[in-house]
């Protein structure tokens, strides 16, 4: 039956959450033996120029890499994904050619598709 396993996981997660929330399941620091006044955790703030620096770094890598090697290695990733072969050697070769994570994932998505949860 389609979605059976996913529904079972969701039901188990719901029941677990309910047992913690009601106190039927005790978890130290979550619903038992908590400090009265816990300090708020410090929030890490990313400097505003970080995104722009990363974009420029990726552009520099793309300008300096061999586009032919990148395309060949990405093709090897896609071909390996169409078989039962181990994908890691092809992925590592693509990384060595300076293919980006997005480029590699795009080739894998082309073969496997994008995950879509089954919703009843």
Shape: flat
> How many beta strands in the DSSP annotation?
0
| Approximate helicity band | 55-70%
Q: What radius of gyration results from the CA coordinates?
A: 23 Å
From the N-terminal CA to the C-terminal CA, the straight-line distance is 12 Å
What's the helix count? 5
Measured by DSSP, the beta-strand proportion falls in: under 5%
SSE blueprint and pairings:
Blueprint: H1 4-22, H2 50-64, H3 67-81, H4 88-96, H5 101-112
Helix pairs in contact: 3-4, 3-5
How is this structure best described in words?
It is a single chain. The protein has 120 residues and is mainly alpha-helical. The chain folds into 2 domains: 35 residues, no CATH class; 78 residues, no CATH class. Helix content is 58%, strand content 0%. The protein contains 5 helices and no strands. It is flat, with a radius of gyration of 23 Å. The mean pLDDT is 93.
Structure summary:
The protein is mostly helical and about 120 residues long. It contains five helices and no strands.
Sum up the structure in keywords.
120 residues; mainly alpha; 2 domains; 5 helices; 58% helix
């Amino acid at each position: 039956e389609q979605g059976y396993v996913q529904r079972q996981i969701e039901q188990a997660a719901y029941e677990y959450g309910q047992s913690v929330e009601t106190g039927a399941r005790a978890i130290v620091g979550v619903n038992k033996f908590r400090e009265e006044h816990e300090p708020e955790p410090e929030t890490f703030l990313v400097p505003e120029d970080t995104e722009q620096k990363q974009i420029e770094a990726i552009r520099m890598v793309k300008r300096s890499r061999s586009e032919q090697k990148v395309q060949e290695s990405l093709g090897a990733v896609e071909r390996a994904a169409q078989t039962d072969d181990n994908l890691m050697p092809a992925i590592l070769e693509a990384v060595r050619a300076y293919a980006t994570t997005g480029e590699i994932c795009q080739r894998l998505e082309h073969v496997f598709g994008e995950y879509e949860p089954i919703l009843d």
